[in-house]
């Protein structure tokens, strides 16, 4: 229900932001999102939990599109240089911080409900503090936007690249740890070493991604990213050992790091839609990669083994290279 809510939210997010502004929608979603987290802690039936998870995913993606619209205005109108990769790096930092906080609160004996209240209170405070710093009114596209708008050719291309990247990222999130355990021949051992390598290098790639983009250009860095994804998986698949898997998965993490920030930056420049609607359109195409990627890898792995199933990620890296080379980005 959570990813389903996220997918349903995307057209609404683009339309509502174009009507009400990204500042208002960012603040509203930043208040509703943690409120739903608290309510999830009180849910006591599968129906109530499913209902709340749907809207938790829904407002999570409204917040995502609203914040990216704000970030694009800062990048394009205020500074005029690539900055979106750094903003996305903060998402990675937040994910690592949230995991660490969750582990600490569990060890300290806090209940799930108390945990949710603490996180929500912290988020409420941040939303109120930072409200005054948000861009009051983004001015780069004022035309009205329909709730459902058909993307142009460029947005479809960017959506395809986003889809490939999201599928790669979803596959690595769900299957990298299991593959690492298969390589070291210890399926009983709990190890996230492979995924940790991927996640840390993705965070590092986003932190330095803007500088790389300035030097290589959007097209150049997309082609470099695609070769890192394909090369990293080739290393992990064809030379399987603990060291090569860690290095290979790290290369994949660095490769996927800047793709979505670049796709968002380029989609925000379209002349056929508002910025928020263009982001939502590309995200709608791309987000399906997160939904279908892990199950596809699982089905293929059931037939030919996980090692060769992850070859799909290698092929997607090559596809990103072909799409980037073909484009006029």
Précis, in short:
This protein is 82% helix and 0% strand.
Gyration radius, in Å:
20 Å
The first-level CATH class of the largest domain is given as Mainly Alpha
Summed over residues and divided by their number, the pLDDT gives a mean of 86
Distance between the termini: 35 Å
* Number of strand elements: 0
Keywords:
329 residues, mainly alpha, Growth Hormone, Chain: A, 2 domains, 12 helices
Structural commentary:
This protein is mainly alpha-helical. It has 12 helices and no strands. Helix 1 (2-20) packs across helix 3 (46-79). It is globular. The two termini are 35 Å apart. The relative contact order is 0.15. The model has no long low-confidence stretch (mean pLDDT 86).
What's the helix and strand layout?
Layout: H1 2-20, H2 22-42, H3 46-79, H4 84-107, H5 112-131, H6 153-183, H7 193-238, H8 242-257, H9 259-267, H10 275-304, H11 306-309, H12 311-326
């Amino acid at each position: 229900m959570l990813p389903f809510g996220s997918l349903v939210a995307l057209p609404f997010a683009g339309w509502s932001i174009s009507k009400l502004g990204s500042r208002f929608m960012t603040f509203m979603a930043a208040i509703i999102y943690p409120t739903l987290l608290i309510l999830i802690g009180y849910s006591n039936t599968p129906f109530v939990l499913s209902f709340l998870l749907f809207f938790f995913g829904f407002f999570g993606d409204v917040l995502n599109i609203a914040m990216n619209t704000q970030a694009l205005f800062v990048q394009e109108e205020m500074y005029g240089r690539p900055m979106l990769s750094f903003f996305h790096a903060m998402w990675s930092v937040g994910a690592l911080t949230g995991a660490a906080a969750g582990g600490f609160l569990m060890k300290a004996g806090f209940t799930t409900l108390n945990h949710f209240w603490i996180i929500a209170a912290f988020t409420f405070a941040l939303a109120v503090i930072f409200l005054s710093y948000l861009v009051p009114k983004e001015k780069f596209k004022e035309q009205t936007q329909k709730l459902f708008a058909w993307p142009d050719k460029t947005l479809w291309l960017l959506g395809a690249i986003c889809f490939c990247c999201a599928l790669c990222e979803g596959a690595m999130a769900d299957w990298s740890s299991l593959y690492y355990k298969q390589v070291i021949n210890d399926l009983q051992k709990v190890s996230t070493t492979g995924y940790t390598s991927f996640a840390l290098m993705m965070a590092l790639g986003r932190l330095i991604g803007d500088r790389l983009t300035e030097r290589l250009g959007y097209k150049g860095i997309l082609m470099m990213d695609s070769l890192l994804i394909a090369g990293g998986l080739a290393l992990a698949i064809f030379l399987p050992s603990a060291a090569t898997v860690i290095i290979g998965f790290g290369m994949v993490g660095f490769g996927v790091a800047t793709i979505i920030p670049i796709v968002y930056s380029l989609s925000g420049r379209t002349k056929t839609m508002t910025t928020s609607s263009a982001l939502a359109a590309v995200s709608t195409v791309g987000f399906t990669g997160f939904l279908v990627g892990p199950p596809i890898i699982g089905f293929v792995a059931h037939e030919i083994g996980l090692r060769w199933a992850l070859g799909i990620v290698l092929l997607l890296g090559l596809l990103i290279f072909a799409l980037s080379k073909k484009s006029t980005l």
